[in-house]
Design a protein that fits this description.
mainly alpha, 7 helices, rod-shaped
Length: 269
């Protein structure tokens, strides 16, 4: 037999598991009274009844009304509310509470006794499966408050922030260049004659024609490739600063009278 099954068998074989706490205590008290006499029997029944009531609470088979009222009031603020009602979740609270009474001695954590509590819950024939009821059962077992907070989780998306357009434009300008040219000029040279006599008459017409030329510049235009423009994109690493408002839950306690609460950090509240 497994240890869990043996422990469960021992629990269910305990007389108080079948009788109310008062009845079990009364039987024990009556036994003591039978030995001590009638007066002892009466006193034993009373004392045994009180002790048995306490024992019955320790192995309760149902959730007390004040405990149910507590979870009913807390239900709206609990994560297990989801899309269901308190009546649907009540069996889970009950299983957690009863499990704490039955198996929670010596401070056993929930995960060590979860299998037993799950078996008890499945006997409740609840409409919720264990996966949906587990948090509520654990709440009732541990009586814990889970403090939550919001966190910022940045998401990145690529968006177009602009556009660069490249096009060619024709610009007219005047350009002046110097081109070497050649031209002919007439050079007249004078020198003295030899003084001999001539038969020609003075005044006779005599003409010498010498053609003169020069180079003229004409302009022709040609189209040439001057330069090439290449466009590419590159990724630049940068840092963007974003901010947002988050909420978080912190524990607040209210004490009345002379009660004092000390949390596990040692701070008085």
């Amino acid at each position: 037999m497994k240890d869990d099954e043996r422990k469960q068998s021992e629990d269910t074989n305990h007389p108080a598991a079948f009788l109310g706490g008062g009845a079990a205590g009364a039987i024990a008290g009556a036994t003591v009274g039978a030995i001590a006499g009638p007066l002892g029997a009466a006193a034993g029944a009373v004392v045994g009844g009180l002790g048995g009531a306490m024992t019955g609470e320790a192995i309760a088979d149902d959730m007390p009304q004040d405990e149910e009222n507590y979870w009913r009031e807390q239900f709206d603020s609990r994560p297990e509310k989801a899309d269901t009602s308190f009546d649907a979740v009540r069996p889970a609270y009950k299983s957690g509470y009863v499990g704490a009474m039955r198996y929670g001695d010596q401070g056993a954590p929930f995960n060590e006794v979860e299998d037993r509590i799950r078996e008890d819950y499945q006997n409740e024939h609840s409409e919720l499966d264990w996966g949906s009821a587990r948090d509520a059962a654990r709440d009732a077992y541990d009586r814990t408050i889970v403090l939550r907070e919001e966190r910022l989780r940045p998401q990145k998306e690529r968006v177009q922030t602009g556009e660069v357009e490249l096009r060619k434009e024709v610009i007219s300008e005047t350009q002046t260049i110097e081109v070497p040219i050649q031209r002919e000029e007439i050079v007249i040279e004078r020198r003295a004659a030899d003084g001999t006599s001539t038969s020609g008459e003075i005044g006779a017409e005599e003409v010498i024609r010498v053609p003169v030329s020069e180079e003229r510049v004409t302009l022709e235009k040609e189209v040439i490739n001057k330069e090439e423009i290449r466009v590419e994109k590159r990724l630049v690493e940068d840092t963007a600063t974003v901010s947002g408002t988050i909420r978080k839950e912190e524990l607040a306690t209210n004490s009345s009278g002379d009660s004092k609460v000390i949390d596990n950090t040692g701070r008085n509240r």
